[in-house]
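Fig. S4 source data, part A: sequence.
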Amino acid sequence: MSFRPVALALSAFVAVPVVAAKGDALENRVRAEILLSFKAMQAAANIHDADAHVAFYAKDPNLLFVVGDRRIVGWQALLDQQRKWWPEGRTRSDSGAKAPYRLIAGPNIIVLDPRAALLSFTLEAPKADAKGAIVDRTLAISQLWQKRPEGWRIIYAQEAATLK
């Protein structure tokens, strides 16, 4: 009787945890890298710094940002729109002393492969209406992040708002 088939079978079972551990380490590294960018991006949003915020999106003419039923295509178009949304530039929120965006769920990061991940989160985002009154709203946001030579960048994002 030969022990070779048994040894091969056992080696496959022993290798599985090693492969899984390498996969877990890679996923954890990807999550950590994206989380650092996410936190910096949210900090820029909380002071309405459009340039710093949009810097986390891919400088790509095919970038797609969907907000409600509107499609914004291309990095420059997104930057131009973000500057319109935040015309006051680097200031505190118009909603008083608190930061304009408060994370209420997430971020949840699903690593698709070593170069792509899906991030989703929900924010409380008070906004001034046409009369200047603060309206409470919730934003649900999904982003597709891609590893590029310049680092992790968003290549697709979708944002949906609900009023409270």
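Fig. S4 source data, part B ends here. Residues 1-21, 92-98 have pLDDT under 50 and may be disordered.
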